[in-house]
Amino acid sequence: MNPPQDIPAHVAPEVVRYTDAVVKRLQALLGDELLGAYLIGSNSLGGYEAGPSDIDIIAICARPVELATKQAIARELDHRALPCPARGLEFVLYPKDTVSRPTPSPRFELNLNTGAGMGHRYTVRPEDESPHWFVIDLDIARQHGVRLAGPPASELLAPQDKRWVLDAIRTSLAWHSREEPASANNVLNACRAWRYAEEGVWCTKLAAAAWARERLEEPSLIDAALATRRGQPGPALTPEAVHALVQRVLRVVERAAS
């Protein structure tokens, strides 16, 4: 399986080199069982920033793989074996049967986080993870995934039911509010959820912030979140202000779901 030649120009050269190495290692371990690999997240949406961004990759295999193969993939993609040029790699391997039909609980073979800027995570049990992350990622992947190997993502990934995507967004908003109530990431995630609920459009968090800024009577919260993300001085984010924005977005999500 030869890598495609249509990687968009906005994907940074260091990301192209890294993803090429990832695909080569997957091909060596999976052979013909590897059906496709796709770059998603900020890289696919054109919002990658060296420093705060991750490199997000999903791969599709023909059928479930043995535990020893999952462990071998995790070793080969570990940051210590293949240094990630970004904050970290978020990698998920799915069997074809899982992604070829819509489901509110996608069952992966391997979920791996590894990198200098993130905690290491290796999971092979889908029940150990909240499914909302994977519903959102698969919806973005089908619409915007950058092909690294195999056919276009839309040929392997089924459309997600929008009700399930909205449910996943609702869970994501709750998770961010619980885990990081006064963070810039919570604000920007809410902006992205807001735009999807209003327009059905996935975009980068920065593009979503610009979109949301035009719709707020007082955009200072957005400006503060962007300054925090960029490491610039600015007013502190307060849990109360962030909570108010999230609640506003939740009401939009509820309207969209109904």
Care to give the gist of this entry?
This protein is of the alpha+beta class and 258 residues long.
Report on the structure:
By secondary structure, the chain is α+β, with helices and mostly antiparallel strands. The protein contains eleven helices and six strands. It has helices at residues 13-30, 42-45, 67-77, 96-99, 132-144, 153-156, 162-179, 184-199, 205-213, 220-229, 239-257, and strands at 34-40, 55-61, 89-95, 110-114, 121-123, 146-149. Strands 5-4-3-2-1-6 form a six-stranded mixed β-sheet, sandwiched between helices. It is globular, with a radius of gyration of 18 Å.
What's the helix count?
11
Distance between the termini: 44 Å
Helical coverage, percent range: 40-55%
The secondary structure category is alpha+beta
Structure summary, number of beta strands: 6
- Widest sheet: strand order? 5-4-3-2-1-6
Order of helices and strands: HEHEHEHEEHEHHHHHH
* Rg result: 18 Å
Poorly predicted parts = none
Shape: globular
Characterize the main sheet.
Answer: 6 strands, mixed
Portion in beta strands: 5-15%
Roughly what is the average pLDDT, rounded to an integer? 94
